[in-house]
Amino acid sequence: SLCTAGSNIFASVRENSPVGQFISHISIRSDPGANTVRLCLTGPNANWFYLEGRTIRLNSSASRVLDREVLGPFLIAELTCYEDDIKQSHYRILVEILNENDNKPKFLEETIQPFSISEVNSVVFTVKAVDSDGDMISYFIDQSSDAWFFRIDLPNSGKVVLSKPLDYESRTRLQIIMWAQESNTEEKFNISTVLTIDIEDVDDQYPHFLPCTPVSPRVPICMNPTYTANITGKQQDSVLEFSPGPIRARDGDRGINAPLMYTILSDNHGRFVMDNRTGEIQVEDRLKYSVATVVVRVLSENSFPPVFNATTFKGFIIQSSSPASIVSTYGNQVLQVQVSDQDFSDQGVNPNIRFLLHPPSRLYQVTQEGVLIARTDQLRAFDRHILQQVVARDEESGEEASASVDIEVLQRGQAQQLFGDVDSRLAGGIAALILLMFLSAFLFLLLRF
Ligand SMILES: *[C@@H]1O[C@H](CO)[C@@H](O)[C@H](O)[C@H]1NC(C)=O
Ligand SMILES: *[C@@H]1O[C@H](CO)[C@@H](O)[C@H](O)[C@H]1NC(C)=O
Ligand SMILES: *[C@@H]1O[C@H](CO)[C@@H](O)[C@H](O)[C@H]1NC(C)=O
Ligand SMILES: *[C@@H]1O[C@H](CO)[C@@H](O)[C@H](O)[C@H]1NC(C)=O
Ligand SMILES: *[C@@H]1O[C@H](CO)[C@@H](O)[C@H](O)[C@H]1NC(C)=O
């Protein structure tokens, strides 16, 4: 038979080949059409071929390209040979479509949706791209944008790990550009996508008291303020006013703002109470706390100014060559200027009083006990000195009182006339006292100058 000597056909053709591309010879004995021989293509993919004598060619067109990704890897057809319309032989045709890299990788939409990760997470996410040509894909992160937060462990995995801790308090959203690229092809087709990652706040920050003073412009850690309030001893059941005030704290986790509870950690005598809803220790996590110092200055209640018990104090001093002596009263006692302050029940003694001479004198000093000391060797007998203002100043309230001191400078003999022989024992006593005072005054002056 003219139809004999053929065989099943196994061939291959490149994907996207043009129309007329040679597929295979048919090895039958006679040319079809020459005699009564007729060839016929049938089967599922028969319309992908046409016959040209004893040659099978590809039947494609611009609008019908040979696409392996659509058709699958093989074309299957059958060839039947008729002689005088009688079927003489039957052959199978199997043509493999050789893959061409005609597709770019594509990210799977579901793997590149915006998503959130917790700021204390070290976990990872995975992006996935596919390539219709079945090519291998490598992933990498574009070095622009927020790439430095992430890295890819294995280039072919698409698994992204954190390379740097996240911090909601500094960034709440990150964006990275991911590339997927063919790794086993010459063309190395690629594709990119922008990934949006929202950071979720986690309760990881300590609360801090307000106002927040950053440790430095670069270190955003708050230094807690010291709150100060002044009260007087008589205040009771009153709300203290603090400076800076009021006492307030804020959760460091801006996105969470956990409720805060305030408590006094130490208060020596339990004199203060604090409303726990307007202060600071986190309710859920008592390990997250912040401590601020509160200073309450208890001021003595001040209703009365200090008062001198005389407007003018009178005294004398005996001229001598000693550098310093104490001014005495005519009652032969040490002259001591004194004030009383009715705010103080203890005999009106205000411990905060300080004496000073105004204007300061070259010849006299006043001690903190109100005793006046003269530079005896610089005085002239018969002189009279009036110290216009001895000032008593309450160092706490700042209140002042003043009095004057009238001092006569006597000669040694004059003192004897004044006190007479009767008082000689007393005068001796004065002399001894003055000597004693002189010693202490000398020490005082030594310290002072
Ligand atoms: C070639 O393909 C076209 C388009 O599908 C079809 O109309 C035609 O019949 C095919 N030719 C053969 C010989 O099968
Ligand atoms: C992606 O492919 C384009 C060409 O299509 C090329 O210009 C570009 O450099 C490639 N990108 C990367 C990251 O390889
Ligand atoms: C408390 O008193 C001091 C002086 O006694 C004053 O400097 C300070 O401002 C006062 N503080 C407040 C909060 O009133
Ligand atoms: C806060 O104080 C109130 C009233 O003193 C008390 O009932 C409540 O238990 C306190 N809350 C906490 C969390 O200690
Ligand atoms: C002033 O008061 C003190 C004590 O309170 C007293 O010792 C002194 O004698 C008084 N002086 C005068 C001038 O009243």
From TrEMBL:
GO MF annotation, one: calcium ion binding
Subcellular location per the Swiss-Prot or TrEMBL entry: Membrane
SMART domains associated with the record: CA
PANTHER family xrefs: CADHERIN-23 (PTHR24027), CADHERIN-RELATED FAMILY MEMBER 5-LIKE ISOFORM X1 (PTHR24027:SF431)
Ranges that cross the membrane: 426-447
GO biological process: adherens junction organization; calcium-dependent cell-cell adhesion via plasma membrane cell adhesion molecules; cell migration; cell morphogenesis; cell-cell adhesion mediated by cadherin; cell-cell junction assembly; homophilic cell adhesion via plasma membrane adhesion molecules
Ranges of residues in domain Cadherin: 5-107, 118-209, 247-353
Keyword entries, A-Z: Calcium, Membrane, Repeat, Transmembrane, Transmembrane helix
Source organism: Poecilia reticulata (Guppy)
Domain of life, source organism: Eukaryota
Pfam families, alphabetized: Cadherin
Matching SUPFAM superfamilies: Cadherin-like (SSF49313)
Protein name: Cadherin-related family member 5-like
Main location: membrane
GO cellular component: adherens junction; catenin complex
